[in-house]
Design brief:
paralog of FGE (formylglycine-generating enzyme); 4-stranded antiparallel β-sheet; 11 helices; about 425 residues; alpha+beta; about 25% helix; 4-stranded mixed β-sheet
């Protein structure tokens, strides 16, 4: 099979070496391109507010609107610099996997001011029905009425964004699968389903597909943060257990956790931010990173300094993967800047009746405290790195996807800046307008 989307031929043979030795096997890493253009870059130094000086201008905060909706999200700039990740041996409640500490060089990037909310993630969930409609119309053009150039243009737009339904087809870098409808929405939404509450229970693969979708329709490059990038942003220049100091007695001013959350998530941004203006890096929901979790990750990196992209522990198996920040379910110690948590696979899907289990959703309580936050690197990623940060990265996930798509239990489409227009065309043709 040569399906480019499912990437059955995409091998990470060097990933284990890269994780153990701290060496990226991709020349140039994620930052090989020229500085990015687009939102968040201005030529003149701002008179006030937060900004980061870079070659060619200044990185500034910006707001994006998800096309076809009134949903927005905010990004804030993070300066490049060096960070000592992990915790010192004397830190209270230190985990065995938090050391030895390693110095990491981190290039500039933007990070979500808040965690991804339900209003944002449900816009992605809506793609399931939208992709199904595109596929239906593209494969059954007789279902629509009309002729002339306008009708033909709409059909061409639809076909260019629809999946044929054949898993043997070759797909390019824009192909995205949408999260399937929830098996039991009462479970997922139990800790909160309001628009400004953080989205939870998505798998890391689903989180990666969200970043691919939002990248495609906005024409920018969003992804999950690496573990090192996440800790760098969480610390925000501090070296203490928390971004506000050492005393967990102050945590209630900055975070929702087991002592004050009242068994639910809370609207993002309702506690104090860290020194770089980023909210909820401690608590509310723990956040996915790109990395596989290994107890000895930091030992393999050496003392450093190591470039952030070279420090990524690229996954070679479905689990465990690193989640950071702690959640509304967790004790204060798990909200420390250096605290590392790891995902489970089967234990988090025990109630999932599907065979194979869903690659998009978890069904057990620890996952009701797991969400996501996006970052956008200053410099564009290579094509190889885009596949690494967006697509299925191990054979088990690829096979589950392939089986589900073959059985009609998944939806796929092309995420480009023209996708909203293709969806609009599908609605118009389907309604006969």
């Amino acid at each position: 099979m040569t399906n480019l989307y499912l990437q059955k031929t995409y091998k990470l043979a060097g990933a284990a070496v890269a994780c153990a030795a701290g060496l990226s096997f991709l020349a140039g890493g994620a930052y090989a391109g020229e500085p990015t253009t687009g939102p968040g870059i201005v030529q003149d130094q701002p008179a006030d507010g937060r900004f980061v000086k870079v070659d060619g201008g200044y990185m500034v905060p910006y707001t994006e609107t998800i096309p076809g909706t009134d949903v927005t999200f905010e990004m804030v700039p993070v300066p490049g610099g060096e960070v000592l990740i992990g915790s010192p041996e004397g830190e209270a409640e230190r985990g065995a996997d938090e050391g030895p500490q390693v110095r990491i060089n981190v290039p500039p990037f933007w990070i979500g001011k808040h965690e991804v909310t339900w209003s944002e993630y449900q816009a992605f969930m809506a793609m399931y029905d939208a992709f199904k409609k595109l596929q239906l119309l593209a494969n059954n053009p007789g279902k629509t009425e009309g002729n002339g150039s306008s009708h033909d243009d709409k059909m061409e737009l639809i076909k260019s964004h629809a999946w044929s339904g054949d898993v043997e087809d070759e797909w390019g870098v824009d192909a995205v699968t949408s999260a399937t409808p929830l098996y039991d929405s009462s479970f997922t939404y139990e800790p909160g389903d309001q628009p400004e509450q953080p989205a939870v229970t998505m798998t890391q693969f689903a989180a990666k597909q969200y970043t691919k979708w939002i990248s495609g329709i906005l024409g920018a490059e969003y992804r999950l943060p690496s573990e090192a990038e996440w800790e760098y942003a969480a610390r925000a220049g501090t070296t203490t257990a928390y971004s506000f100091g050492e005393d967990p007695a102050q945590l209630g001013e900055y975070a929702w956790f087991d002592e004050n959350a009242d068994y639910q998530t809370h609207p993002v941004g309702t506690k104090k931010p860290n020194p770089w203006g980023i909210y909820d890096m401690h608590g509310n929901v723990a956040e996915w990173t790109l990395d596989e979790h290994r107890e000895e990750t930091y030992t393999g990196l050496g003392e450093g300094p190591v470039d952030a992209w070279d420090a990524v522990c690229w996954p070679t198996k479905v689990f465990p993967r690193v989640i950071r920040g702690g959640s509304w379910l967790d004790a204060a110690s798990l909200l420390r800047s250096a605290a590392r948590q790891k995902s489970e696979e089967m234990e988090w899907k025990l109630k999932d009746p599907n065979i194979p289990k869903s690659p998009w959703w978890f069904t057990e309580e620890p996952a009701t405290g797991v969400g996501m936050r996006v970052v956008r690197p200053l410099k564009p990623m290579s094509g190889e790195d885009k596949r690494r940060v967006w697509d299925a990265d191990v054979e088990d996930i690829r096979q589950d996807l392939e089986d589900r798509m073959r059985e009609g239990r998944g939806a796929m489409g092309m995420a480009t800046k023209l996708l909203p227009e293709a969806m609009k065309a599908a609605e118009e043709l389907d309604s006969g307008s």
